[in-house]
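User: structure tokens for this one?
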Amino acid sequence: MERSVYLDYAATTPIDDRVLDAYASTAKEFFANPNSLYTSGRAASAELERARESIASQIGAAQPSEVVFTGGGTESDNTAVVGIARAARNRSGRDHIVVSAFEHKAVLEPAEYLAKNGFRLDLVSPRSDGVVHPEDLEALVGEKTALVSVMHVNNELGTVQPIAELAAVTHAQGALFHTDAVQSVGKLPFDAGANGVDAASFSAHKFYGPRGVGALYLKRGTPLEPLLIGGGQESKRRSGTQNVAGAAAFDTALRLMTGEQEEESVRLTALRDHLIDGVLEGIENTELNGDRDRLAPHIVNLLIKGVEGEAMLLQLDSKGMMVSTGSACSSGSLKPSHVLLAIGCPPELAHGSLRLSLGRFTTEADIDYFLQEFPLIVERLRAMSPVYSKMYG
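Assistant:
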């Protein structure tokens, strides 16, 4: 086996040893049910609220009660889309929702579920630059709109969306705005209050925390019909005994990321640009998907014409490099990425995409190794492709 190079940090991140220590020590010390009235239960509740207060301060929440602990990003997205839309309809009769066409399936599928159950659904398309433009959203939002959802950083392209402007367009029509911030928090500055969002979703395993722990920012006064009922925890917004150790680990991971964010952003941006330049200059008939000037530091999506993404992935894996052809949650699908189709990429070309995502342990030597091996892989695969020979030979 060649050296091991992990370039799929957007799929998941390894848990930080310091986060693991926080998880283990909290699980041992605060094992009691935080809803119990005896002493150890009250101690666990106090630890849960300490974590909630710390997280609230880091994401720009006005008060700790605006943070709802969940089981992960998918649950947070589902709760926001379905729960807010239903509550808004019950409160005001609004029955229209708008989501971007390149959302994660954790937003798209709940929106489609609502469309099958009495809501009207519109998809706002990003342009070829990988960005949802405010004027395009403005054309769709109206007096019957209950909710708009547009992610902060697209999980496949890495393009950063103008969520403050999109939220302003949404609020001008009296609707509510949710953003999936799973790929941005801890990597880019994120302030829920300053951005004017009503709800935002987070997942700890995207920033070196444990899996199975997430959070939903819910601005005070935002209506919500809970998806999980039966115990009334989290102020009746998410029933189920809270994961105190998970909340503490989430807080620790986020504090570490926030503290290192500025320096790490500079480092990853330099590595990202080295990667992009190396591929575009070293391999003909390749393109970067999305506007380079709007990219987050850690995600690159490349279009390699005339080669199947899965073939490139397997060849890279044989060299010890771990990459993705798109969202990890859709990796078993043979369909072209809905994200690339949304920005106008033809289906026959969309199959030839690779997503590379960088993180804390990515080095310049890792990128150099990729740039050394990848052109050879593409050359071999193209030599075996009659389609490539016909198109570019």
